[in-house]
Amino acid sequence: MPLPVVAPADADQRRARKPVVVYPNGTLKRPDLSRLEKAKATLEKIDEVIVPPREGATFRAPKGHFIRIVSVDGPQVGDLNLWNADNLAERFFSGKTRALHATHVSTGDRLWSTMPYLRPLATISHDTLGWYGFDQDGGGIHDVIGTRCDPYTNRLLSGTDYHHCCHSNLTRALANELGVSWKEAEPHVHDVLNVFMCTGFTHDTKQYFMKASPVRPGDYLELFAEVDLIGALSACPGGDCGDSHSSDAVPCYPLKVEIWKPDLAALADWPFPPVSPYGGEP
Ligand SMILES: [Zn+2]
Question: If both were cysteines, with which of 29, 34, 75, 107 could 240 make a disulfide (CB 3.0 to 4.6 Å apart)?
């Protein structure tokens, strides 16, 4: 028998303390989106990658370019990884991005890199789903709370093997990009930005939930590359993630990644972020 837990006499008073936002709004400098808009006046598409359903693909985006992740054909969720193209140890840090911004990100938020670098790898410069906000269930779009569907958790919970989980798709895509084995690529794969996914925590038990994504063909999430990037995107086997994942059960659609070159002269004095100046303990 577990020991009973008894609430103290002042339990309600303790619960009534006011929450304090850990990283208060206003302490993080916001990017100048109007300057990015000006630089977009002369966009030229220089590359396009189609991510097939239940597969992954990589792309490269030079610093100062724009990446558009576009919904095509049907509602589809994408799991995104990002790395500094010159140093794979510097990669997207979903936990710190969540702490600095929120559980879900949109225009003006930044995608931060791991320590000891801790700088924006990319800035969200446009989000056609920015209208969604938070719904009555507490669901929002583009979360940094989920990890990625993976074959290990699937094995744990279902006892079966499935090889097209986002973790597997991202690993396979990165291995192809780098010309290395699956085993060599796998440790570089990390917690994702869940592009177009609608998720939240249930009001009562605070359990992670997903519901059908509101994304429709033509919607896109646009990122501004703050450093030279390698990206990997998986078209999640969950499709719009309104039902199940880690199987071939639901309809799945491709995603498109477009790389756009702006008027680089308009970005001549853009404050591209250096790595964190913190030098560590002497
Ligand atoms: Zn997935």
Answer: 75
